[in-house]
Write a structure and sequence with these properties.
There is one protein chain. By secondary structure, the chain is an all-alpha fold. The protein has one domain. The chain is 80% helix and 0% strand. The protein contains 5 helices and no strands. The longest helix has 28 residues, at 37-64. It is elongated and about 50 Å long.
Length: 144
């Protein structure tokens, strides 16, 4: 199971790096009310890059200190939720919210793995990875 979790985490990290690194198009930052799509995407750009970075960093720590890795990912998930909540553009908010929820689900599955790798359900972990990949693609399409 450890090899499976490490491999799947590496796969999702690579896919998220590809999806998250493509931030929104430029444009002036508008006030939150009436936020343009470009401004909303731009406000999330740094957070999406940080997701990729955090996943990469913490996936490396999953084997050596899984509890710490999950704890760091949970802290980051809270920051990601706050960043998503700050987006007022409806289209971008919907895609970002879907991504945040799938990221949260992935962190939850990794937490299950960290607590008891022997009883972790590999199919649930794979499902969480698939959801994260899908929502990353959706967000990239909106902000691409």
């Amino acid at each position: 199971m450890k090899k499976t979790a490490a491999l799947t985490t590496a796969v999702v990290t690579a896919l998220l790096l590809a999806g998250c690194a493509s931030g929104g198009s430029g444009g002036d930052a508008a006030a939150p009310e009436g936020q343009s799509k470009a401004a909303a995407c731009k406000s999330l750009e740094g957070d999406m890059k940080s997701v990729a970075s955090q996943l990469q960093e913490q996936s490396a720590n999953l084997q050596s200190d899984p509890e710490k890795a999950v704890s760091e990912l949970q802290k980051f998930d809270s920051k990601l939720k706050s960043a998503t909540d700050a987006v007022t553009n409806e289209q971008v908010h919907a895609a970002a919210s879907e991504f945040e929820q799938s990221f949260s689900k992935l962190v939850g599955e990794l937490e299950t793995y960290a607590k008891d790798p022997a009883s972790a359900d590999a199919s649930k972990l794979q499902s969480a990875i698939t959801d994260a990949q899908s929502s990353t693609k959706s967000l990239s399409k909106v902000c691409g």
